[in-house]
Amino acid sequence: MIVRPSGNWFRLLFVWNGSVLQSIIPQLVFMAVVSSLAVLTHGRIFGEKVPLNTAPFTLFGLALAIFLAFRNNASYERFQEARHLWGNLLNSARALTSQMLCYAPDSAERLNTAHTLIASVYALKHQLRRTDPTPDLLRFLGHERTKALQHTCYKPVAILNDLRRDFANLQCRASITDTKLWMFDAQINELGKTVGGCERIASTPIPFAYSVLLHRTVYAYCLLLPFGLVDSTELFTPLICVFFAYTLIALEAIASEVAEPFSLAPNALALDAMTRGIERSILELCGCELPAEVEPARAYQLT
Predict the structure, then answer these.
(1) Cβ neighbours for 57, distance < 8 A, ≥ 6 positions apart
(2) What's the pLDDT score for residue 3?
(3) Beta bridge mates, 45
(4) Can you tell me the distance from the alpha carbon of 197 to that of 193, in angstroms, rounded to the nearest whole number?
(5) What's the CA gap between 40 and 55, in Å, rounded?
(6) Could you tell me if residue 32 is left (phi over 0), alpha (psi between -120 and 50 degrees) or otherwise beta?
C-alpha cells in the first residue's frame, strides 16, 4: 500500500509511484494515435464524415460519470470493510493475549500460545494473497506443527482450532474455570468471524457484468470523442482527448485495484505492515523483544 505524506500541490502533480498512470500508458498512447488520425482525416472514416458533435457527449458523459461513481463507491466499500475486519483482528488478538496473561495460570505455554495466535494472523495474510505461508509458520509453530498444516486448505481456521483445543485442555486439567474458558472462546469466535469476513471479500468479487459494461462504455466513449471534437478543437483534439481518456480509464483502473484490497497492488491494504503490527502488539504484551516495523511505501518516491 502507498501512504501519501503531506506535501505541496506541485509535487503531487508529478507523483509516479502509486499512480495508475504507469499501468494505463499504452491505452493513452492508443488514444493519442486515434485522436491524431481524426485530426489528419478531419473526422472521416473511409472517406465518410462521422456525424458527431459535442452535444451527445455531454449527456453520455454525465451518465458515464454516474456509473463510474457507483463502481468506485462499490469498490471502496469492499476496501473499507476489509480494513475494518483487520482492525477487529488486532483488537481481538490483543484482548485474547491480555486475557491469557491475566487469567491463565503461570505457565511456559503462554509464549507458545501467543506464537500460535501470531501464526494464525500470518496464515490469514498468506491465504488472502495466495502466497506460501511456510517461512512465517516455521518461525512461530516450528517444523512439526508446520508440517502437519502443509496439506490444510484453511490454515488460519486450523490454527485457531488448535488454539481452542489448548484452552480446552487447560479447562480439563482444572487450570482455568468454565467462565474463563468462555471468555477465551468468545475471542476466538471473533477471530473466526474476521477470517470468514476476509474470505467472503476475497471469494466474492464485484459481478463481472458490471466490469465488462463499464470497460466497454469507457473505451467506446473515448474512441468516439475525437470525432465529436475535431471540428471545434482541431489541432488540440489529441491533447483534450488524452486528458479525458486519462480521467476515465484511470478511474476504472483505480476501481479495479481498490476492489481487491488483499492483493499486492500499490493501492491495496498494507497487509505486511498490519500483520507485523499485530505481531509486535502481542509480543509487547508478553514482554518479548519486538521485531522491526514494516513501513508502507511512500507515494512521493519517483520509482
Answers:
(1) 221, 224, 225, 228, 229
(2) 55
(3) 48
(4) 6
(5) 23
(6) alpha
Q: What is the grid cell recorded at 207? A: 459481478
Q: Which grid cell is 80? A: 473499507
CA-wise closest residue to 181 among 171, 190, 189 = 171
Q: What is the largest CA-CA distance in the chain?
A: 90
197 grid coordinates? 469476513
Contact 176, 103 (CB under 8 A): yes
C-alpha cell at 56: 451527445
Could you give the dihedral angle defined by the CA atoms of residues 154, 155, 158 and 163, in that order, rounded to the nearest 10 degrees? -150
Please check whether residue 135 is in contact with residue 125, taking contact to mean a CB–CB distance below 8 angstroms: no
Q: Which three cell numbers stand for residue 291?
A: 521485531
* Assessment of whether the complete model's pTM goes beyond 0.85: yes
C-beta of residue 261 within 8 angstroms of C-beta of residue 201: yes
Closest CA to 257 of 8, 18, 40, 7: 18
Buried b (16+ CB within 10 A) or exposed e, 175-206: ebeeebbebbeebbebbbebbebbbebbeeeb
All cell numbers assigned to 113: 500460545
What CA–CA distance (Å, rounded) separates 8 from 93?
Answer: 39
Pure H helices in the chain: 9-12, 21-40, 54-103, 109-129, 134-148, 155-172, 178-203, 208-233, 237-258, 271-285
Run means of pLDDT, 10 residues per run, the chain, 303 residues:
59 72 90 92 82 81 87 93 96 95 79 94 96 95 92 95 92 87 94 97 90 90 90 88 92 90 89 94 93 69 38
Side chain identity at residue 283, one-letter code: L
Residue that has been written with the C-alpha cell 471468555 in this structure: 183
Predicted local confidence at residue 108, as pLDDT: 66
Residue reference for cell 465518410: 48
pLDDT of residue 51: 82
